[in-house]
Design a protein that fits this description.
nine-stranded mixed beta sheet; eight-stranded mixed beta sheet
Length: 178
């Protein structure tokens, strides 16, 4: 299991040539919030399009680099086509409030976790209540409910079952390799 933000800033390298094709800037998702690919850094003067790599073209994702099969895996996308992403899309996952169906806010999204090659569904959320609260109490970990139909990943909030409040754990409990 990896944290999405761990990918940000990693170089993206072609396996057979060793060529650096970019650096990970963001990740983008489909309408069901499944990871679809990575957005690469681009010079500002090329803001008319984004360089992306679809997740299916990622061969491996290590501690220090993301490896892809070929330069052809890097494609262009218009910024307005980037609907859902972690940082930069029209709908941003970062800082979305997580609210129970009873109206209790559990925190805001600080990071998400997923198994990189066992599907791309988000398996957990790291939640924050703000800088001071993070220092005093630490961040919280919320495992994504096993039934995806019980979670609404909306444009302005994530709605989770009421039982989710009792399932919050300190982030340290989620720092396992699995």
């Amino acid at each position: 299991m990896i944290k999405l933000q761990r990918l940000i800033g990693l170089p993206v390298i072609v396996i057979h040539s060793g060529k650096l094709v970019g650096t990970v800037k963001d990740a983008y998702f489909d309408e069901h919030w499944q990871l679809q690919g990575l957005v690469l850094e681009s010079p500002r003067w090329l803001a008319l399009s984004l360089k992306i790599v679809r997740w299916t073209d990622v061969l491996t994702c290590g501690e220090d680099a993301v490896i892809i099969g070929s330069e052809g895996a890097v494609v262009r996308l218009k910024p307005k086509e980037l609907l859902r992403s972690f940082y930069t899309g029209i709908v941003k996952l970062k800082d979305l409030p997580v609210v129970t169906v009873q109206g209790n806010q559990l925190g805001r999204i600080s990071d998400v976790y997923f198994y990189p090659f066992q599907g791309t569904q988000i398996v957990g959320y790291e939640l924050t209540d703000g800088f001071v609260s993070d220092l005093m109490e630490g961040r919280k970990w919320l495992k994504a409910p096993s039934d995806p139909d019980t979670v609404l990943l909306g444009e302005d909030a994530i709605i989770v079952p009421a039982v989710s409040e009792a399932e919050l754990e300190p982030v340290a409990a989620s720092n396992f390799k699995g």
